[in-house]
Amino acid sequence: MQIRTPYLIFLGDAHDQLAAKTGVAIAEWRRELCVGQLRLPGCQADAGLPDLTLEEAAAAGAKTFLIGTTTRGGRINEAWQQLMLRALELGLDIASGLHDRVADLPAVREAASLFHRAIHDVRTPHGPFPVGTGLRRPGKRVLTVGTDCSIGKMYTALALEREMKAAGMAATFRATGQTGILIAGSGIPLDAVVADFIAGAVETLCPANDPDHWDVIEGQATVLHPSYAGVTVGLVMGAQPDAMVMVHDPTRPTMRGLGDRPVPGIAETIEAHEACARVTNPRAKVVGISLNTSRLDEAAAMAEIARTADRFGLPTIDPARTGCGPIVSVLKGM
Amino acid sequence: MQIRTPYLIFLGDAHDQLAAKTGVAIAEWRRELCVGQLRLPGCQADAGLPDLTLEEAAAAGAKTFLIGTTTRGGRINEAWQQLMLRALELGLDIASGLHDRVADLPAVREAASLFHRAIHDVRTPHGPFPVGTGLRRPGKRVLTVGTDCSIGKMYTALALEREMKAAGMAATFRATGQTGILIAGSGIPLDAVVADFIAGAVETLCPANDPDHWDVIEGQATVLHPSYAGVTVGLVMGAQPDAMVMVHDPTRPTMRGLGDRPVPGIAETIEAHEACARVTNPRAKVVGISLNTSRLDEAAAMAEIARTADRFGLPTIDPARTGCGPIVSVLKGM
């Protein structure tokens, strides 16, 4: 499954930037794949792309109408249906990361069939996947891991890929969540894979490659997460990472959605991920720390980054402030 | 989902005892729930039950026609279809742990609908399940864990339940695999649950209970398994076990289906499971070792049991040889 590019990014009537975060992220990380954005009256979000009608986008070569909003509960707004039908008629595919499946709308599904167009509901895995083998395969892999969910693992992986490429390295971002999949144009929504096949799906996602090629794999959750650790463990073991980058938010006291459960410490989380990863790659190690300091001012952030580097003896970055240089240097030497 | 009892155990034309191991196990662990067995010409297996026709079983009160064979690849023999149709007509439900779903046979599905009978394909989970919360809940739980797959975790859990009940304790076997589910009459086939919901499914399986009630939970795989660790980790964290029993086969050098990968050691496996379990139950610990000595003679087995107890300082049993006494005593004191 590869989503055709370039995209027309649909921002709907998103009431703020956060409600269109998928579309905004695609424009940020894959600007070259976006011909424009389509916004409905009242839309308060802006991905910084030219505003185009469906017809203008089709004329500009758009191949996929990409739903870039995150509606509440992931529901598809039925009022968007007419737009989707027209997009299909104009020769565009449709891609969506929403919870509700576009392909479950009968009129849209029928129109896609009539016009021989594809619908990509990227929360639905394209199995079947094999059982993981645990066998070592060529190519290098770096996996972002973290102390909690929604903390910056996708952002860190994308920033690493960009800077690794800029440094002349062969690097490919590998997506494991819906936003990452829409950015990459392919990937596997790991949280929706059947339990027995998690590691096998990841082995499929980042298969054997050239010895000097790096897969930069988007992490999920944490192996210390009481709800989602099964996903993370399967991901870590399937990835067989040579290197891991630990993502942490120093301003977050408690885990998301888990009441007053404290976020585990960096040292404990490093130890847990290294123990897990070494089941399939005995040389796996955490090679750097990526701090999400978005809630700190510049001075406090830089002080926290320096303090963390010092405390753990590991290169420490905030990709949004400092770039990934020190970690890319380590990877380049591996 | 609760499968109606008593059962008629169908052994098909199983060419040996192993090919009918599901039926044999049900007769071993739940003899009181079985009215008889049905064998086709050429069947070489015997669950030790009276041989009955469908009509005799129905007259004897059988409520479910239970497919007790493990055909190659889990395929349903189409020739069995006439038997299933007649069983439904006689008022029996159908239960199966095979890979192919009975409910996917159109004629059988239609007959079940016509006669208002249930089809239990126990490899198919009855979701949706919630996301795990990690919140502590009342009741005590013991989970069997192990150094590999197919090593005796279900057997140990069933033996523990039986002896705990005999010792006057309130204990309930909780099944996580298809054979266990058919024995218990309910449970969740954990390997088929969607990744995000593994821990939540287990929280559903062994919910809050009386403070002195023990759930005796069937383990799966091992947290050190390169293919299936995601399942195990979700199970361990969802179970929040107060106690774990480590199951090991001292005669197995390499892990099943993984080439020459050695079986991890007992000490390493205990450490990994305790670290995982303490994410949701800080007091979790391995309280005993259950050895599968089926490939040793009696003297070698008893020596190995004594040596293991001495080496790890933990009560060590083989439930098939020694019973579970020393471990039941520990649990009784908790």
From TrEMBL, chains A, B:
The D-glutamate N-acetyltransferase-like C-terminal domain, residue ranges? 132-328
What the entry lists under InterPro entries is as follows:
DgcN-like, DgcN-like_C, DgcN-like_N
Q: Which Pfam families match?
A: DUF1611, DUF1611_N
Top-level taxonomic group: Bacteria
Domain D-glutamate N-acetyltransferase-like N-terminal stretches: 41-125
**Name listed for the protein in its UniProt record:** DUF1611 domain-containing protein
